[in-house]
Amino acid sequence: EDWRSKNNISVRVGSECSGLDYCSGEFRDVILAYNSIHGYVSLLVCLFGTLANALNVAVLTRRDLAAAPINRLLKWLAVADVFVMMEYVPFAVYRYLILPAQEDRPHSWAVYMLFHMHFTQILHTASILLTLSLAVWRYIAIKYPSYSPMLCTDRRCSMAILISFILPPILCIPSYFVFTIHKDFTIDMSTGAAMKVYFVDSNFEGNLYQINFWVHAVFIKLLPCVILTVISAWLIRALYRANTRKKALKSYNACPTDTVVNGNGNIFTRKSTKRSKAERRTDRTTKMLLAVLLLFLITEFPQGILGLLSGVLGRCFFKRCYDLFGELMDVLALLNGAINFVLYCSMSRQFRTSFGQIVRARCAPAQRAASQTELQTTFV
After folding, report:
1. What is the domain-level CATH number for residue 165?
2. What is the per-residue pLDDT across 248-289, written as a single tens digit (0 to 9) for each?
3. Which residues form the G-protein coupled receptors family 1 profile domain (predicted)?
């Protein structure tokens, strides 16, 4: 058995896979080399991502930002990412740092593995639905600005958030039955005695296995990716048109547009082609959300394709390829959740301003306390 396989799923590839050569060669060696350091890399990403998303929640819950539906969606996206990363830390510590040195695989570990698989899948699916809601929300706001106040209401935003957290446990029902705890025996190298080991494995027989991979690959991964690709392409087109219009306005800026008569009866011209502040803010928000969507697509599309191939090609591909790329897919998903704070800070002036206010508010009491202590010391 390959106990280093992802999620402690046993790898017992039978003779039916001996003639198949999926995911072999030097590329496989590169992936295996990364897998050997994945535990340390994932811990660093999780520690940074947990802090970053906690800051996201702190900023997006401020009174000046909390009311906007887009910010509410971003806040709950950060909440989902925080829980995923917090749960991944004990998994990574035990799975990659402690477990390799142990001979036994206790039943409690298998139970936790089963919980870890379903918990992360449910919350990651919630993140996918929240990202999809963000894209649809922005599409409506730009495509149909006159209908946006009527369609993009606070109530509909609350419904989108609620559905994003209620639907994933339902979509993941097939995996509850496909992956179960199994028991096997291995030889203790020090004593030579037989020893029980527990592990999580998938039940490959029956239609439920195929249904699970089709649901996971098509409905949870690929379908949202296709929708987001279409919306992202449209947003890029909208930004391109806005940029073209901006250049046209700059070239036209020297031409007078309005004639004004002042109180003395003098006639002068006024330029009015400058883009409004609200329009520039709209473009910045669209660019930021577009960066979030593109980062999401880079992360999710490969997972969806691998899942689809696992459903089409069957057990052999899953064991030889899907397991192989497991750690790489994990770290990409973690990076996707961790880097959003950097995107918000670099692309949103309002976010930077609010974040700076939080930092100053936290630092000010400490500075006042230090000043007071210094003053008291002086008088003593």
Report:
1. 1.20.1070.10
2. 776 665 555 555 444 444 444 444 445 556 666 666 777 888
3. 52-344
